[in-house]
Design goal:
It contains 12 helices and 2 strands. The chain is mainly α. A two-stranded antiparallel ribbon has the order 1-2. Helix 10 (314-338) packs antiparallel against helix 11. The chain starts with a helix and ends with a helix.
């Protein structure tokens, strides 16, 4: 049975970030910055409420008589109680014989074209631990992208405006960045396990390291770009954020309405259609929040029973990163054109290039993960190298007609010049022959 280390990491980031947010809000209150205090508290308490809601929903506490647990969730102490329960289950496992076990069947990764099916016994304790791990993984994703990401952007924006980085604020921003990267990592792992649920997925340490570096560069550069842009063009910050958010929020719903399918019924049996719609809206809200800062690693498909498109679409991935790179470059260009005196001691061209190169490094780590470290790369119908070759051929195909048309035009111009030269030469020859004939006639006369 695995040690529940992911639960400890999630709880530590949750408690540490909440405590730092409360301390910073008190410092803003004492300094008279009511706006920064309110926003810091908002971005700290909103994900806390959603985390409690997700834990209650996953464990179905509303359908059971557990008033003490519900009270602790209302007091925002739900993750601590769940963590204590996890370790009680872990240390008591094996001491008492399980009354019954369930059998799960998983397929191994193909070797030499063959994939064997293995059976595994899962006891009640291990099943409960699996449920807790899944709940904490979802809570980490919610905490990361609905709390830590806007919190990190806000605190970095305050540092730029005040031109000061305090010790408390630097610690808070470091915790927020770690929380976002960890949430993105858990999002990647959840996506892999959902897509390849029939297989026994074993994720190696090198894969974790590659995902961590990929997400660190991607999220850090994205947050810095948004802060730089908002510091010089405050009036355009809200439209940029809303366009990004609502584009990702409504895209799954537009595809769902075009499919003309009904809502999935396997989310929760006790939910009505209204409840199912509310849950799907919250899911798309989280999906949009993730894609605001990084690639979500999944594509929602609301007309599917699993709510996730399990196909490996490299074109969608390439389009996302291409558009995000162009957007970051445009926002940086606007910052460079309208930068204020705050950035007097900053080498703007160097920072511009560093941020674009940092985003490219994130893309390189992402390509390395899918090419070498993905635990299910043997199941891919096509790999990254083949996709890059196809992209190269596509760009060559686009450039080839331009080159061929240019060569045709040059050939036409050359043939036209040759025709004109031949015409002039023939004209001169005729003139010469006529002149010679005229001279011979006059001499004969």
């Amino acid at each position: 049975m695995k040690f529940p280390g992911s639960v400890l990491v999630s709880l530590f980031l949750f408690v540490a970030e909440t405590a730092c947010a409360l301390y910073l809000s008190s410092t803003y209150c004492s300094a008279g910055d009511r706006i920064w205090q309110s926003l810091t508290l908002l971005f700290a308490l909103l994900p806390c409420v959603l985390v409690q809601f997700s834990l209650v929903f996953v464990h179905r506490d509303l359908s059971r008589d557990r008033p003490l647990v519900l009270l602790l969730h209302i007091l925002q102490l739900g993750p601590i109680v769940r963590c204590v329960e996890v370790f009680c289950i872990y240390f008591q496992a094996g001491r008492v014989e399980e009354p019954y076990v369930s059998i799960t069947k998983k397929r191994q990764m193909p070797k030499d074209g063959h994939s064997d099916e293995i059976e595994k016994e899962v006891g009640q304790a291990e099943g409960k631990l699996f449920t807790h791990r899944s709940a904490f993984s979802r809570a980490s994703v919610i905490q990361a992208f609905l709390g830590s990401a806007p919190q990190l952007t806000l605190q970095l924006y305050i540092c730029v405006l005040q031109q000061e980085i305090t010790a408390a604020r630097s610690i808070f921003m470091t915790l927020s960045l770690l929380s976002i990267v960890y949430g993105a990592l858990r999002c990647n792992i959840l996506a892999i396990k959902i897509k390849y649920d029939d297989y026994d997925v074993n994720i190696k340490p090198m894969a974790y390291l590659c995902i961590f570096l990929w997400r660190s560069f991607e999220i850090a550069t994205r947050v810095i770009v948004l802060v730089l842009f908002s510091s010089v063009l405050q009036i355009w910050t809200l439209p940029v954020v809303l366009v990004n958010f609502f584009a990702f929020f409504f895209h799954p719903w537009i595809l769902f309405w075009q499919s003309k399918c009904t809502l999935p019924e396997n989310i929760e049996k006790a939910l009505s259609k209204v409840g199912t719609t509310i849950v799907l809206c919250l899911l798309t809200f989280l999906y949009a929040g993730i894609n605001m800062f990084c690639w979500s690693a999944v594509h929602l498909k609301l007309n599917d029973a699993d709510l996730i498109d399990k196909s490996q679409n490299w074109c969608r991935l390439a389009l996302y990163y291409l558009l995000r790179f162009l957007e970051n470059a445009f926002l940086l260009l606007m910052w460079y054109m309208y930068k204020t005196d705050v950035y007097t001691y900053v080498c703007a061209p160097m920072l511009f290039l560093q941020l674009l190169i940092g985003y490219c490094i994130a893309v390189l780590f992402m390509l390395a993960f899918y090419q070498f470290c993905h635990p299910c790369k043997k199941l891919f119908s096509s790999n990254i190298s083949e996709g890059l070759v196809l992209c190269f051929k596509f760009f060559c195909y686009i450039c080839k007609p331009l080159g061929s048309s240019a060569s045709v035009e040059k050939a036409d111009l050359k043939s036209q010049e040759d025709f004109e030269n031949d015409t002039v030469a023939s004209y001169k020859t005729n003139e010469t022959q006529n002149g010679n004939a005229h001279q011979s006639v006059s001499s004969n006369a």
